[in-house]
Amino acid sequence: MMYNYLKFEKRDEIGILSLDRPKALNALNEEVFKELTCFLESNDVENIRVLIITGEGKAFIAGADIKAMQEYSPQNAYDFSETGKRVFDLIANLEIPVIAAINGFALGGGLELALACDIRVASEKARLGLPEVNLGLIPGFNGTQRLPRLVGAGNAMYLMMLGEGITAQEAYNLGVVQKLSEPELVLEDSIKLAGKIAGKSPNALRLVKEMVREGLEMGSKDAGKMESKEFGRLFKEDQKEREEGVNAFLEKRQPNW
Ligand code: HXC
């Protein structure tokens, strides 16, 4: 598949997807969403253990395409918001871990995309924020929901009401970002982290992701029950990865998933 606005590269079991629209700071429009949908539903993601998402040039993603939105009717705007949500849900629901390698500006819809990923690594020089209130807008790709679940309502309100970007260090302090990197090392550090994660049981990683994501939508009692059930299921006879992991530990060797 040829893409206009995406680049994909595989390094061993790690996939690196770059948003490639640097002249518009990788701003998200309907074309970009079409290509992202194509990619996320393709078998490229079936053949990797960890996906990294990053941006070409000086930005990660500077948000939704403001020029394109200028022409929108209420129906267009609603549809755009729904389309973006569907794409970001595809990312959030992938069975493999997804790391956002935030190489530069992650603003508005760009930060919302990073929030749909499982882990965020950021360049110390990156700026992150939700500037929608400067435009008379609100976050429209589930940022109003994902951010408070990640960092609590107070920190989320702070970012959404402030409307100006914060430094990567501040984002790290708030828990928006999990790891800071020197600017030229952000991708390399993300690949290292992905490499470590790629060595773990794929089945366990899938379940960790599912428990956290599904659990956030449920009451904690029901979520706890769901966890017990899945934990129990890991001890069925056909659960080869659990068997291999435990045997490898007891035999003092590396597991082979
Ligand atoms: C369209 C954009 C863009 C955007 C930048 N560009 N951001 N185009 N949509 N979101 C374009 C600029 O118009 C410019 O094009 C080129 O990219 C380079 O940007 P500059 O502004 O010249 O770069 P710089 O001076 O370095 O400033 C970088 C910046 C600034 C601080 C990131 O570009 C900026 O504030 N961008 C907008 C950020 C924003 O408000 N994002 C939220 C959007 S709303 P030309 O043609 O002039 O070279 C949103 C809502 C999501 O995301 C929900 C929707 C449902």
Automatic annotation (TrEMBL):
It comes from Marinifilum caeruleilacunae. This is Crotonase. It holds the Pfam family ECH_1. Gene3D superfamilies: 2-enoyl-CoA Hydratase, Chain A, domain 1. It comes from the Bacteria. Belongs to the enoyl-CoA hydratase/isomerase family. Residues 235-257 are annotated as: Disordered.
